């Protein structure tokens, strides 16, 4: 572990999901690999409220190989494949309350050369301004599934709390009934790395 970047403790994640989705903003997502360490300031999140949220993978208690980790302790890594991308989520509900928070965008912080090597871009704003972009740049993969954010090579550390937080509807969930209108997306206003 990088001495400057200590993982937040397990207790940090034991917070109601909508509150945690806001608390994560400004925190730093860190990934250690054999190539080196990269990190990014979390600037955008989306909350998914499990069994009652039609947009959640675990809606109506859907328990599958993919969603299994969501039924475990808060603070675990939930990665899943979407098309060619791996997306990363924080498991946020207590045991058997399958909720999670998607990390939608980060602002590059350290290991930027390494991120650019993995994901060469001409416009720097495109490096980590979306959930699939940030995982590729930081080499977050399906191998991270189920690991604890508070004790693994993928972790979250304290950052600087944003002065202001905006919220609105989530992105890309048009087929989820009234859930598509829930204001469960949170972001740091004016940050250029917010996905949209």
From TrEMBL:
Its EC number is 3.2.2.-. Keywords: DNA damage, DNA repair, Glycosidase, Hydrolase. It is an enzyme of class 3 (hydrolase). The keyword Iron-sulfur does not apply. Pfam families: Pur_DNA_glyco. CDD domains: AAG. GO terms for molecular function: hydrolase activity, acting on glycosyl bonds. Belongs to the DNA glycosylase MPG family. PANTHER family: DNA-3-METHYLADENINE GLYCOSYLASE (PTHR10429:SF0). This is Putative 3-methyladenine DNA glycosylase.
């Amino acid at each position: 572990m990088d001495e400057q970047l200590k993982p937040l403790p397990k207790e940090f994640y034991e917070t109601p999901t909508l509150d945690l989705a806001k608390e994560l903003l400004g925190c730093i997502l860190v990934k250690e690999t054999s190539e080196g360490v990269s990190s990014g300031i979390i600037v955008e999140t989306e909350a998914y409220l499990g069994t009652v949220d039609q947009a959640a993978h675990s809606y109506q208690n859907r328990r599958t190989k993919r969603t299994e980790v969501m039924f475990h302790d808060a603070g675990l890594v939930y990665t899943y494949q979407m098309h060619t991308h791996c997306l990363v989520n924080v498991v946020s509900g207590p045991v058997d309350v399958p909720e999670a928070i998607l990390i939608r965008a980060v602002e590059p912080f350290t290991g930027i050369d390494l991120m650019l090597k993995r994901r060469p871009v001409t416009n720097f704003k495109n490096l980590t301004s979306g959930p699939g972009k940030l995982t590729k740049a930081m080499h977050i993969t399906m191998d991270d599934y189920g690991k604890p954010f508070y004790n693994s090579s993928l972790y979250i550390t304290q950052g600087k709390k944003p002065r202001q937080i905006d919220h609105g509807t989530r992105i890309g969930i048009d087929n989820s009934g009234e859930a598509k209108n829930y204001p469960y997306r949170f972001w740091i206003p004016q940050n250029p790395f917010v996905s949209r």
